[in-house]
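Note to self: keep these together.
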Amino acid sequence: MGLRRWDPPELTTLREQMNRLWDTLRTGTREAAAPRVDVHQTENEVVAVAELPGVPSKDDIEVQVTKDSISIRGEIKRVHDVREEDFIHSERFYGSFSRILPLPVEVKPNEATGRFENGILEIRIPKTEAGRRPKAHRVDIN
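Structure:
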């Protein structure tokens, strides 16, 4: 069993916010917030569901899966051709986004499937045999 880096969720969020701030200061453009993602597992697979509002098509999304993580990257583009100086008020995010999530068990990356519909991305990844094993076994004491 190899060592695995542990990042508390608060530290990961802070790191993502700092990276966005740095990119904004460096490039002068706003970067979209990291997508919100739910990850859950069934007996045989891990399922990740991401909200990607504003992403027009699956061609604007890249998903990579390793045996212990999932990476979601993409870009939200402005739909209307409006000059920056013509905006009176702008809150909608546009630009590139990325998110890397550790997976709770070992999976089979080459068997992952994805579906993108109405701004929702769903990725299903089968578990390996090692990933299906229970994490703990209760021992009866006589």
